[in-house]
Design a protein that fits this description.
Length: about 350
């Protein structure tokens, strides 16, 4: 099991990422019957406290330290300065929670500083996002969604559409690799009532016209959307996946005895520019397959024990290495074998470009 697979399992049972309590209830129930998944949930869902000093260390040597908490309690929000309401603050490196159960959600900057985003914000992987270049911070609001330029004074506000009922919320669906566009999905309990294509350069928000039953999973360098027929989320043992762009179809095929999905593993498709990434499962082993936009296999990277798939970066594909003891150890964020950052062992992390796809 891996982080993105768990994300999809939570979606199947809880669906509504805006309801953090519901996600936690699902996690607790699943943990009781599937103890083998504990290490995965520990990295994904806010589910416990921490009483030790932990830190996020970047390549520059800057260290972001989570203030020690009293025994049995979470790190207090008062330990962190609030994100300034306006003006440039710096390039975003990650959004994360340093521990589980009531820990605050933090914005970590590339220079090592960190700011408080909220004391009890919604679970970051569902609704909070950073653009691939770390410039734009996206968060849901009571009236829709807000994208803030961390390097300037601009804020783009997207109003909730008329469609969608109570409990609906925006989630980031797909970024363009150049950080100029973001597809948002407006949904409740996983049922999307509308997609919105946001142009960050102009602030213009439009509704993409999609064939029925398709969802956008990526934005090509040309600006065209990659679309996925949602019937492929049927849980069958699937050895190939088809994507559509314009009037063309692209077929991606698994290698050897691997599958892209089955009864135990959800389909994972991520797109970054002209690169398409799928997770391939062979028994209890997982590999990251990279394809070009024509469907040609570029690389196959098996994940080592203790590594969990996260998402594409400019350097390659990011994975998390969990420490043997998450309470006292560090998570290592790697891409193409290069250490990007270290996080608290129980942290939940959103990297730049982090979205559903």
């Amino acid at each position: 099991m891996n982080l993105r697979d768990t994300y999809h399992q939570l979606e199947e049972e809880a669906r509504d990422y805006a309801d953090a309590d519901r996600v936690l209830r699902v996690m607790r129930r699943r943990r009781a019957v599937r103890t083998a998944a504990t290490v995965t949930f520990a990295a994904l869902v806010i589910a416990g406290g921490v009483g030790l000093q932990q830190s996020l260390t970047g390549l520059s040597g800057n260290t972001i330290t989570a203030v020690p908490a009293a025994s049995g309690s979470a790190t207090p929000s008062s330990a962190y300065p609030a994100l300034p309401a306006r003006g440039p603050v710096g390039q975003g490196a990650a959004v994360y929670t340093p521990c589980r159960y009531a820990c605050p959600t933090l914005l970590a900057l590339a220079d090592g500083r960190q700011y408080l985003l909220g004391a009890h914000t919604i679970t970051p992987p569902g609704n909070i996002t950073l653009s691939p270049d770390g410039r734009w911070l996206g968060m849901p609001t009571a009236s829709g969604y807000e994208l803030r330029d961390l390097l300037g004074d601009t804020t783009r506000r997207i109003a909730s559409p008329a469609t969608g009922g109570a409990g609906s919320a925006y989630s980031p669906w797909a970024w363009s690799a150049d950080s100029r566009r973001l597809i948002l999905g407006y949904h409740a309990s996983g049922d999307v009532s509308a997609y919105t294509d946001v142009d960050l350069t102009t602030g213009r928000a439009t509704t993409p016209h999609l064939p029925k039953g398709y969802e956008p999973v990526g934005i090509l360098p040309s600006g065209a959307l990659f679309l996925l027929d949602q019937s492929q989320y049927d849980g069958s043992a699937r050895r190939q996946v088809s994507l559509r762009t314009g009037g063309s179809a692209v077929t991606l095929r698994a290698t050897g005895a691997g599958v892209f999905s089955d009864a135990d593993h959800g389909l994972s498709v991520q797109v970054s520019g002209g690169r398409i990434f799928l997770l391939e499962y062979t028994g209890d082993k997982i590999a990251v397959l990279e394809f070009d936009q024509k469907g040609t296999l570029v690389s196959r990277t098996p994940l080592a024990d203790g590594e969990y798939a996260l998402g594409p970066t400019p350097e390659g594909y990011a994975v998390i290495q969990l420490p043997p003891d998450q309470r006292t150890g560090r998570q290592r964020l790697l891409s193409a074998g290069r250490l990007l950052h270290e996080f608290p062992g129980e942290a939940e992390i959103v990297i730049p470009g982090g979205a559903r796809h």
